[in-house]
Write a structure and sequence with these properties.
2 helices, 2,3-Dihydroxybiphenyl 1,2-Dioxygenase, domain 1, alpha+beta, 2 domains, 9 strands, 19% helix
Length: 129
């Protein structure tokens, strides 16, 4: 069994899609639009087979701009980039491009080498070896 995809509601599906393509080598599918419901989405596929569904519908409410508050539910997406050097390089590239680095590259208590950044919609993205 495997996780087939994870879905994220977004305010700007184009910006979010482009983020995952540019920084995590995602491959976008053809956009979907349901004009009757005002629903649109993209699937973005990744090398290992998992997909991310990025969705928009005007009736979905915005939880606010809270960036550092922890809460129950889905907390982050993690991407393995192959090496500690790649973690550091991608983290710095994201910082230079204006994205917030929440946690600097480090070895965690459970032995992972990782950093945490926020995507364009403030979702936490863990970058790990």
């Amino acid at each position: 069994m495997k996780i087939e995809h994870v879905a994220i509601w977004a305010k700007d599906i184009e910006a979010l899609k482009d983020f995952y393509i540019k920084y995590f080598n995602g491959v976008p599918g053809i956009g979907y639009l349901n004009e009757k419901r005002g629903f649109s989405s993209y699937f973005v596929s990744f090398e290992a087979g998992a997909r991310l569904e990025i969705m928009y519908m005007p009736s979905v409410s915005d939880p606010g701009e809270v960036q550092n508050l922890e809460f129950t539910g889905l907390t982050h997406l993690a991407f393995s980039v192959g090496s500690a050097e790649n973690v550091c390089n991608l983290t710095e590239r994201l910082r230079v491009d204006g994205f917030m680095v929440v946690d600097e590259p480090r070895i965690t208590g459970d032995g992972y080498f990782e950093s945490v950044v926020l995507d364009p919609e403030n979702n936490r993205i863990e970058i790990t070896v």
